[in-house]
């Protein structure tokens, strides 16, 4: 299947990955990004499905599936007899703001709901291997979970919490975001750091976040230590790349 490298002015260049997600998802992802980047403007009319299929080198049904997906998300509007246009009012995009202070982090994730996927008591935290992060606790409560806010699945997480802390409020830790509960319980957090890496979604992360496998994601490792240097909280989380905003104050 041959792809057009330079398309009609009403479409951005579309390039497909083989292997990769279904072609309609790849086409929808690139059209959505073009809308967000203002390459396609509000109110602008798109080619017909057949024209789009020819320009992109895909089947007509693939073009139709991509358009239907973007219509359902609110990025496109399709009306009988008028064709398909870029929506004049784009949907709001909930963003995860990557804060640089523990207190700001507490406020940001308050109110999020949790889908608990797996839990177990473990004696080791694999996130502490390699670069020194701190002293390990004797035992951790492991939790695999998805965080959801305003109906958006914004984080897929592998989390390790000092078992002594977990036992203070196990039902609360299972049901809601961990950091605000730690703050309410007065848990001693002397130091904390997080490491952000840009990557691509694994099949498991993509499944639980409802995104395409291979899509850009922000991978965050976060560690919190008490005054003795013991790691009381360690987490590895994946955020969809289009829902992350990183704000940094620059120091002169």
TrEMBL record:
It holds the Pfam family UTRA. GO terms for molecular function: DNA binding; DNA-binding transcription factor activity. GO terms for biological process: negative regulation of DNA-templated transcription. Gene3D superfamilies: Chorismate lyase-like, Winged helix-like DNA-binding domain superfamily/Winged helix DNA-binding domain. Residues 21-89 form the HTH gntR-type domain. Keywords: DNA-binding, Transcription, Transcription regulation. PANTHER family: MANNOSYL-D-GLYCERATE TRANSPORT/METABOLISM SYSTEM REPRESSOR MNGR-RELATED, MANNOSYL-D-GLYCERATE TRANSPORT_METABOLISM SYSTEM REPRESSOR MNGR-RELATED. This is Transcriptional regulator, GntR family.
